[in-house]
């Protein structure tokens, strides 16, 4: 939530460009900057009074004015505002902020070709594949999401500032992960996506959305005439099929039946689509569906098949997405971000399909999040031969309690279960157990570089820890 300079614009012009519901009072001043953080206000800024979970921006309006704000965006009266300050009143600041920020930055998305991707799993991989394909087609591309931002989808002002910067740099295409939180909070208002992609839907974020229906309703907002021109959706997924039936924009389905000659390995996937062979240097059965989503979306953008083939083949390693950790010990180690029951189930199924011996899984569940999914994660993990339950960002919760809730979901007697709160030790134990032909799956954190415990972020990366454990095991076997 930074402060950004904008081209000088009058409060009346900015109000008119935003929406007819904006009511302007006070002085029609010239605005030269925008922010929703009163601490970052500079002279000439408009301060946007956003209501959050913990703070109400209206409480800091006078502080912002004392720092030089010449205009306010509000949805309720603020006492004591000088007449020299422009006050733009709207029904709900959160709902209009995306459009307001887009107008402040001269609607940058209108100059760009934009692709928005939503769904529970696969957003990051699908976005990365689309980005690689578009670059192979000679486009200047920015991909934004979980790997590039603190939030999967930035706050509205930050997002519009980023899109404006893309235009300034000559970027032509932006591929964006769009989270359910962002859709529910109207962060992407002001962006009309050329293509919107739906990957799948399973249980996630119920600590925020409360019900599966509300979670899906948030995702479905991407597939409305106000948000996207065209939709691409996974018709193998029941919610995707529902979108196909009810969406008020043109929808193009994709399904596993669209492909043939599928080959899936730990480190690669290939398939035949529209009589063309497409191969990616990334393993896992779910990669097939992510790649299919990507090529279907790119097909709607008019990208030639040759660029799709080249883009998929040249795909770089996506951090923490079925990421293979190389070693010379005769077994495979895979790190994946899977942190939902369905995601973990898919990763385990993909590993099982190519595993010639034991499958060992290390995972945990985050604290201060949906506790109801913890036994479901345990149930998903029990399809492995050995399960090591450990910590995964316990935050303010007791790791032992989280692990106990996970273990309650494990009922298969033939599955060996171990509990180790120290994640580094859990990973080391899994690798020490592994032998030739085994696969070790380290799930949950993927690309993350820290472990959050009691409000402190400690340096921690699963790939680095796995490499260290592999090096130690190799040394001990010499």
From TrEMBL:
Residue ranges occupied by any Mur ligase N-terminal catalytic domain in the UniProt entry: 30-103
Pfam families: Mur_ligase, Mur_ligase_C, Mur_ligase_M
Domain Mur ligase C-terminal intervals: 320-446
GO cellular component: cytoplasm
An example Gene Ontology molecular-function term: acid-amino acid ligase activity
Biological process per Gene Ontology, one example term: cell division
Sequence ranges assigned to domain Mur ligase central in this UniProt record: 117-297
InterPro entries in UniProt: Mur-like_cat_sf, Mur_ligase_C, Mur_ligase_C_dom_sf, Mur_ligase_cen, Mur_ligase_N, MurE/MurF_N, UDP-N-AcMur-Glu-dNH2Pim_ligase
HAMAP family: MurE (MF_00208)
PANTHER family: MUR LIGASE FAMILY MEMBER, UDP-N-ACETYLMURAMOYL-L-ALANYL-D-GLUTAMATE--2,6-DIAMINOPIMELATE LIGASE MURE HOMOLOG, CHLOROPLASTIC
Recorded family membership: Belongs to the MurCDEF family. MurE subfamily.
Name used for this protein in its record: Unannotated protein
Species whose genome carries this gene: freshwater metagenome
